[in-house]
Amino acid sequence: MPKKKKIVVKIGSSLLANDENLTLRYAFINGLLSDLAALKKEGHDVILTSSGSVALGLNMVGKRPEDAGILDKQAAAACGQPLLMNAYRQIASEHNMDVAQMLVTVDDMEDRRRFLNIKNTMLRLFENDILPIINENDSVATRDLRVGDNDRLSAKVAQMVDADLLVILTSVEGLYDRDPSEPNAKFIAEINDVSEHLESTTAISALGSGGMLTKMQAANMAQNAGVETIIAEGIIERPISSVLENERRFTRCLVTGKTASPLMVWLSNRLQVSGTLVVPNAVAAALVAGDCGVGRHDVISIQGDFTKGDVLHVYDEEGAEVARGLTNFSSEETMLMARHLDMNVEDLIGYKTKSDVIGIENLLVLEENHLPLDAPEDDLKLVIPA
Predict the structure, then answer these.
(1) How far apart are the first and last CA of the chain?
(2) Whole-angstrom distance, CA of residue 364 vs CA of residue 314
(3) What φ, ψ does residue 339 adopt, rounded to 5°?
(4) Residue 116: inside a domain, yes or no?
(5) What region does 23 belong to: left with phi over 0, alpha with psi -120 to 50, or beta?
(6) d(CA 167, CA 243)
(7) What string of pLDDT tens digits covers the 386 residues of the chain?
(8) How far apart are CA 294 and CA 337, in angstroms?
(9) Is the N end or the C end of the chain the one with fewer CB atoms within 10 Å?
(10) What positions does the entry give for substrate binding (predicted)?
């Protein structure tokens, strides 16, 4: 028997729903669940991250993908999710497999306590030989509070459960150095540095919210968590095991470098920016050198409406992201402390503390293998006067 592995499988809307009539592709689901059942019988723990609820519900709200607004998509998700789970449940039962549904939002994945609660639930499902099926809760997600693509969600899940492998199934065989429809496009079988391939990943399918770009971002997140990623075509027969047994070609994204602690991995893999700080270049250099955290006197500007315990992204004066860390204060408290350096902290915020805005023990310096996030261009909360 092969070594037992934790495997996270991600499938997108374009594999689950017919492009024209937006109905379920039952043959694909049957082939997928048959293969997952076989992997479970071999002793592997498997998680399925599934899109599809919005695409399957659009007919019920009278919309096409290209015409649907955010409210239409929320309503479509509420209609489509029961259809999707009913299909999974019925077909899984034919393969003697139990399934469980878990709907999550970006807040669930970015909040440390909720993140760990979800992890514990999935581990208990493993103990009971149940297949977790995870999707973003699109019926309540908004434009500002959504994971945005299930590729990166699947990478967060892989990080969460310390997976050995993330398999992303898509409509093409893997990554090419340009649009695969172009002449002389070359297939890329193995990737060490994801950032080298971002320029060739701009296409997005009609039904999906991501594209090859988000798959590369997911692969980078997985790499930083010590998880290997495979990107392969979602064929009907044995879509996963045929890849694991090297029976067809695919793109493999290798794990690079030493994996950090679980807390630091969680800090590094963000789905959205909760808040930002801009610090002087000299302070940014000290952060990179590991000499200090971020004190209130280091703050040039603040963005975002954050609370204590949120992850802040720290930028230098040129706009380059240098670090991420857990804040000890809310945005309002940070604003008060940074604008009134001549006043006692206790008088400003109402309680005693000697903490930095971000302590050095809760600060992650970004390395070359982390893809930086651009600072938001709006919602400027504070610029500290010189």
Answers:
(1) 66
(2) 10
(3) -85, -15
(4) yes
(5) beta
(6) 9
(7) 457 899 999 998 889 988 888 899 999 999 999 999 999 999 999 999 998 888 899 989 999 888 888 888 889 989 999 999 999 999 999 999 999 999 988 778 878 888 899 999 999 999 999 999 998 887 766 544 344 478 888 998 998 899 999 999 998 899 888 777 788 888 999 998 777 776 656 554 444 444 788 888 888 888 888 899 999 999 999 999 999 999 999 999 998 766 667 777 777 777 677 889 999 999 999 999 999 999 999 999 999 888 898 889 999 999 889 999 999 999 999 999 999 998 888 888 888 887 799 999 999 888 765 666 655 555 555 566 55
(8) 12
(9) C
(10) 51, 138, 150
Pairing state between β 165-170 and 228-233:
parallel
235 and 309 part of one domain: no
Residue 143 lies inside a defined structural domain of this protein:
yes
**Amino acid (1-letter code) at residue 110:** E
Which residues, in sequence order, are CB contacts of 82 under 8 Å at separation 6+? Answer: none
| Domain, as residue range, for 80 | 6-264
Residues comprising the binding site for substrate? 51, 138, 150
Report the CATH number at residue 204: 3.40.1160.10
Of the candidates 386, 274, 384, 283, the one whose C-alpha atom is nearest the C-alpha of residue 336 is 384
- The CATH number assigned to the domain holding 304 equals 2.30.130.10
Element (H, E) at 132: strand 130-136
> Is-contact 184 34, C-beta < 8 A?
no
CA nearest to 204, candidates 233, 171, 237, 228:
171
User: Are 129 and 40 a contacting pair, CB within 8 Å?
Assistant: yes
Match 């996963």 to its residue by tokens.
Answer: 240
Q: 135 has which bridge partners?
A: 103
Tokens representing 114?
A: 């909720």
Binding residues: 10, 51, 138, 150, 209-215
The answer to the question of residue 1 being in a domain is no
Indicate whether 239 and 325 sit together in one domain.
Answer: no
Q: Are residues 132 and 164 in the same domain?
A: yes
* 242-247 own/partner pairs: CB under 8 Å, 24+ apart: 243/167
